[in-house]
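Slide 14.
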Amino acid sequence: MGANVAGRLLLNSLEAISKQAPDVLKVLDNPNPASIKSINSFLGKKGNEAVGEELITAAKNKDYSYINTFKANADKSFVDLHKGNKTSKLANPTDAEQLYAFKRQEFERTHGNRLNPKVLDYTDRGYKPVDLQKLEEYKQSELDHWIRHDRGSGNYFIIEHATDPTKRQRIKFNSQEKYNVEGYEGKLRRFSWQNVEVKNKQNASVSRIRGPIARATTTNKKNIGLPQVLKPAGTKWHHSIPSQSTGKIYEAYMRYLNPKFKLTKNAPRNQSFLRMLKEVEEEFGVKFGDDPLNARYLKDDPEHELWHQTLKEFGIDPKDITRALKDETEMTPLKAREWLEKLAKASIEVDNKMGFDRTVLGI
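Slide 15: predicted structure.
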């Protein structure tokens, strides 16, 4: 019996389980880092020695009922652990805890119907009714994560289809605009529910726009679109240097040469601009456009919000670039080169702040 228990102890993490049953991760819908953390915590919990074996069996049999129950139990276990830690901290309040309490109170005051569960009622489309208790637990867990870390956990709330388990809807606790509060120097956030499948359709329309930009701002033609091929399933890459930011400079440069220029999928690549890009790449050790060496940060990663904040600090977020270029009446080759160098320098600083090891790029 001792040997059997010892064997089970080897299955106390997803990494160990996936080595014996690679399909487990696929059946679990390729969990993100935050979900893996909660699942590993549940697998390693004392008394759960046999859960790993049960999970392998369920994955082989495509037993989604067990899989859904397993994930719900793992999430609840992790939330309960978080609540226990929070209770302990409240017994010894600190300035950080007082700030947490203030943000929590402000959230309750301002949101009202913004997170109304009625908007998640998909029963008319064949989906099961939302479990309001689980939805509330998810909301509270995500809010806690945003208040303490200023970013989401990366977890989703799942709405199951009544008859087809492959038609699940993923719901995200979505951060929207920031707003000022009297007596508080920083800004607080407002939130809403976001249907990830709907958002993915919106992203598809965006890709039709970004395609010409990727072609116009990638120096090596064979790399155009490659990051989209290499991305993990169900995810979307962001770039260290946003291709949209580079594309805005390209459009301004081309309109300087030809006021009637329009960037379309059939527009020819301007060789003089590509030469400038190549020179800046070689000088600063960066890559532009859709080059794989420019692809870093997954959009659904918990650090996504930190990445956006860091871009804004260095003025290379696409919206900031758009505003800045309104003052540029003549995007001469010299001016375009200066802008590209600004993107390159900012990219290096962003990577440093994000803790990315640039030596692995080999540029």
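Speaker note: The chain has three domains: 1-92, 96-194, 217-353.
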